[in-house]
Amino acid sequence: MTTNAHTATDDRTTTTGDSATSVEYAPEHTPRLEWARHAPEVYRTMVRLDAAAGQGLEPKLRELVKIRASQLNHCAFCLDMHTKDALAAGESVERIVQLSAWEESRHFYTEQEIAALELTEAITVLTEGFVPDEVYERAAKHFDEAEMAHLIAAITVINAWNRFGVTTRAVPGHYRPGQYK
């Protein structure tokens, strides 16, 4: 999760019809800290933990969970990374776009994915201080015990990544699918 230094202003040219226009976007913010460079063993351990947590989970499901947690935690860097990884894994743009409103667009997702998204929200938000039994039980109907253990681990790990990204103000937009794998 390291960031690259880029110019503060990004001039892009867009073409509509026969004319091209230049659009100046807001300047890119500067990260507060390149934590992976200063705590490389923690970073390497997180990468290993992330890989271990995702074992046995279908790649598209894993990315949907990571995207949803990142939406809830407002981690732009992780949203950039995991939407690109989801697309590279064959996920549809439509399902990624609908993810922020999955409860209103349940018909885009399987019952297993819905259970995983509910569990993701319960673990990520913890507004009641615990994960409700009914949410856990719905997920447990769709995953065996090993899969549940890995799903819980994957949700917990993306929440940790989100906290690193948000706290250090990691800069989104430069990630390429599979870059950190």
Secondary structure layout:
Blueprint: E1 11-16, E2 19-24, H1 35-38, H2 40-53, H3 59-73, H4 76-88, H5 93-98, H6 111-125, H7 133-140, H8 145-168
Antiparallel strand pairs: 1-2
Helix pairs in contact: 2-8, 3-4, 3-6, 3-8, 6-7, 6-8
Ranges where pLDDT stays below 50 over 5 or more residues in a row are 1-15
Strand order of the largest sheet: 1-2
How far the N terminus sits from the C terminus, by CA atoms, comes to 11 Å
Number of helices: 8
Strand content: 5-15%
Structural category is mainly alpha
Which series of helices and strands comes N to C?
EEHHHHHHHH
Mean pLDDT: 90
Principal-axes geometry comes out as globular
Rg (C-alpha, Å): 18 Å
Care to count the β-strands? 2
- As a percent range, the share of helical residues equals 40-55%
Q: For the report, how would you describe the main beta sheet?
A: 2 strands, antiparallel
Write a compact overview of the structure shown.
This protein is mainly alpha-helical. The chain contains eight helices and two strands; from the N terminus they run ββαααααααα.
